[in-house]
Each structure stands twice: as structure tokens, then as C-alpha cells.
Amino acid sequence: MNKSVVLVLATTLSFGSLAACSTKGSQTDNKDVTLKAIFMKQAGYSEETTQQATDEFMKANPTIKVEPIFVPYEALEQKIITGGGSYDVVLIDAPWTAKFAKAGIIMDVTDKLPDSDRKEIFQGALDAVSYNNKLYGMPWLNDTKYLFYNKEMLQQAGIAAPPKTWDELIADAKILKDKKIVDFPIAWSWKQAEALVCDVTSITESFGGHLVTDGKPTVNSPANVEAINFMVQSLKSGLSNPSSLEFLEEDVRGAFSSGKAAFALNWTYMYDMANNDSKESQVVGKVGIALSPGTSKMASATVNGGMGLAIPKGSKNADAAWKYIQFLAAKDFQKKYAKDALPIWKSLFDDQAVIATNPDLVNLSKTQYGYLVNRAVVPWYGEFSTELQVAISKALNGSVTVQAALDALQQKAIKISESK
Asked: What is the CATH number of domain 145-303+380-419?
């Protein structure tokens, strides 16, 4: 999964109850400090916006200097782990929270976020920074995946509405292929990486399966076997682009934006770039967005892509770090940049200025957020994700059967869970 970061606002703005939060045991406001903050490069808020917001923050807080650092998503987790106390603010993905919390890498900030604010924030965004009923960061990016479709292609094929189920997706893709409207109707980010795990989570959950249940691996359940078989068959039938096995999210965006796919599952950021940016897309004005498909067991299921801003325990500038985080998470900033990423604050989804940025997306998200599913919330997620990627990749490329791949993965997952 891929995503970036930012924010912007004048300090004269009120940040509500967040502004009263403080972290004990660090510097005072009168002492000059330098913060190092690490973000990811990809989707979500852009580097340019993050830097602009940081400049605004520093102008309003002259005693605090912030040095933002941007790395690819694939490198972010390891940078945080090996960085020790060199960072003061770190962007964390939802499945890392349990691992980082148990290892003592990030601070518990449960008492820094009032109940009044929690009630205002989407549960999926809170889940991204929660472990054992404690908060280890401030929600920031509120993201998930949707089904994108090319409206012109569907119209040419005589398809009146986007598919609501995976079976309908396959049926529609077959029509598109048979009519030679597009060679490979579906594009996925199924490279052996975390992006694959995100799609596997969505698809297995929609089939009624769970990769982990009550903290224990349940990888080879019948529902999971059925879900992965669906993925395999979509490739064997020639309906899914075979290059999906090497695609990450940006590759999917590229294929869809160049008119080489009728359907794609991707994060929020793709909508604006594919539908509105003529420099990046050849399908401007032709992009539709719908709920991630489901089955008779679940109408939809989509992975929680929420990310939060946390403070490493090694930081000597926790007060200033929390102040910077408050700035980035403020309602005013998220309202101003709703075009880049949807807000964490529920009330903003009824704000006309936010709705105006993208009415279709904002309105759809209210429903899609009701179907968020989390990747496994366990301290051993890192090792599990790695083995999951390998096993599913083998099944997708046909080197082993789905059942054999998941049976072997189940045994490895049990050993990993029992060793922690």
C-alpha cells in the first residue's frame, strides 16, 4: 500500500481541544528545538504540500525547526525501526502499530486525545493507531480502496452500472474483452509486496474469510481458499492483466490512466489524478468510482489504509513533536486539502467546501467507510505479511495450488505467532 503526507494552516487558527495537549518530560516553548519527521513519498498528501505546511508551522512557531524526510513506503518501516531516537515524528501504517507498541518504539498518547475528539474521528482512523485499547499516535490519513472504472468503456460494452460483486466484475470484464474494447480489463497491485496483502485482505474478508481470528492464524479456511482461487482464475482467464503480478499502486494508476484497464482497485488519490489531471491521464472525465465489490456473504469489504503520526520514545522533543502533529491533524488543514486526502473528522464530510472538492468520492466514502477491514492486528504482523506475500505470489503464478500454498502458510504463521 502507498501514501504520502502534508498539511497547512496559520497558527492563529484554533485546533480545538487538541491544542491543550502536552507531553511531559520534554523541552519548553522557550527553547529552540529541531524536529526530524519522516514521511512516505507516495499517495495521499504530496511532498510539496507537506513542506508548505511545515513552513507555515515554523513561521508560526519560530522556536521550532522541522526537517521533513520523505522515503518510499517500502522503506518507511525499516527506517523507523533502525532510526532509533533520531526521529521526533514518524508516519506509521496501521499494521505496524501493534508491533511498535509492544516493542516500545512509540509513545502511548492515550491521554492526549480527549473523548470529544475521538467521537469526531472515524473509527477506522483511530484503529490505525490503536493497540490493546490504547492510542499510540494521532490519526492523520483516512484512506481506503475503491473500485475505479472507465465509464466510456462500460458504455461501449452496454454495461449500465459498475459491478457490485466479484462475480459481476468477472462477467463485465469478459464482455469488455470479448468485444475487444480492452485487452486486459482488470488491473491489480499484486506484486510481492504489502500492496498484495492489502488486496488479499479486502478480497478474503468479502468472501467471509479472516486471515487471523482472535489473534490466531486461520489462513487456510475454506472461505480464504475460495477468495484466492478467485484471484488465480481472474489471471488464468486473461481478464486480469498478467503484469498485475509486478504492479504496485502507481503501476495500476498508470495502466488505468492510459486507457489500458476498465477496472482497478486503488486508493483515494487515484481519482483526482486519473479523472482531472490531463498531464497524468488520458481518461480525464471518464473515471467512475464505486464500492469495492463483495459477495453474497458481505456486500463490500475494503482494507483500512489509515495512517497516523506517532512520537518515538527516543525523542527528546516530545512537546514540540506533539504540537507539530496537532498542526497536521487540525480540521482546518484537512478541510483545505480535502482534494488530496479525505479528512479523519466526521463533521467535515457534511461541510459544503469539502463535498465540493469531489462530491462523488465524498458521498461514496460515507458508505465505503462502513466496510473497512483491518489487516491483522498482531505484534508479529511483519513476519506474517512477508510469508503471506510469498505464499500468495506462488499461488498466483501457478507454481503451487491455492490449497497447498495456504496450508503451508498456516503452519508457518502458527510458528511465527507462537514464537512471539
From this structure: 3.40.190.10
For residues 13 and 337, the answer to whether their CB atoms sit within 8 Å is no
- Please enumerate in sequence order all residues whose Cβ is within 8 A of that of 174, keeping only pairs 6 or more positions apart, or say none: 237, 239
Distance from C-alpha of 336 to C-alpha of 62, rounded to nearest angstrom: 23
Q: What is the pLDDT of residues 371-380, one digit of tens each?
A: 999 999 899 9
pLDDT in tens, 81-127: 998 679 999 999 999 999 999 999 999 999 999 999 999 999 989 99
Element (H, E) at 66: strand 64-71
Secondary element (H or E) of residue 54: helix 47-60
C-alpha cell at 414: 502458527
CB contact at 8 A, 187 and 263: yes
> What cell does 370 get?
462502513
Judge residue 346's burial from the number of C-beta atoms within 10 Å of its C-beta, 0-12 exposed, 13-18 middle, 19 or more buried: middle
**Per-residue pLDDT reduced to its tens digit, 260-314:** 999 999 999 899 899 999 999 999 999 999 999 999 999 999 999 999 999 999 8
CATH 3.40.190.10 maps onto the chain at: 16-143+305-369, 145-303+380-419
How many whole angstroms separate alpha carbon 318 and alpha carbon 28? 10
| Superfamily holding 16-143+305-369 | Periplasmic binding protein-like II (3.40.190.10)
